[in-house]
């Protein structure tokens, strides 16, 4: 497995609606950060959509990645036939082994069967581009629902981008998600978190924390995924809570990212050492 960063390693620096930095992090700057941190892959999500780049900028981005020895991974949001066709083309051009997709987008919330129909319509494109469609567990769909979608489409061409926190939105923890979706996982979004009761005791808050200091047992997740042999990249994602200012939040986010890449690397090294001992 490779170590990767993402546009969601730096969500505040890239830009969040209502909190736009004066100088948002650019795609080329993200590549430079990946190289500096010693990551091997860079995943571009829907918060920095690749289809909006000009042809020249897209060409320059791929050239810069090659020069730095980095792999580009392509992501998008909104599972429709047209959007998938667009992004599968971009994934093929970038040499991305998978296309990470968040199914929903605003009011667009297709049913489970509608998702199956859309995926079946693009199966020929998946075959032609040799790209795996990586569905991200993202709030609404339970793990068993995502498994049914895969089994009703194509288990070789359709997989999972497994996020370690998103399924709290479907009342499922990471252990449940791993147990069901582990065999289909081609990309792991490693996002550490804390879950704390609010001061008045009526409820909990789930939020991000410095990688390696929260509730996520990354080593356990990697031990679970390794035997299946499908997970290609462990990608750092973060949910840094907003601080007093945007500048302070962005600075903390960058500090956490450096910690997070080292956290992933260390866990991958330990997995590799344990495999050699067996």
UniProtKB/TrEMBL annotation:
Pfam families reported for this sequence: AP_endonuc_2
Lineage: Bacteria, Pseudomonadati, Bacteroidota, Cytophagia, Cytophagales
Protein name, per record: Xylose isomerase-like TIM barrel domain-containing protein
The Xylose isomerase-like TIM barrel domain, residue ranges: 31-265
InterPro entries per the UniProt record, alphabetical: IolE/XylAMocC-like, Xyl_isomerase-like_sf, Xyl_isomerase-like_TIM-brl
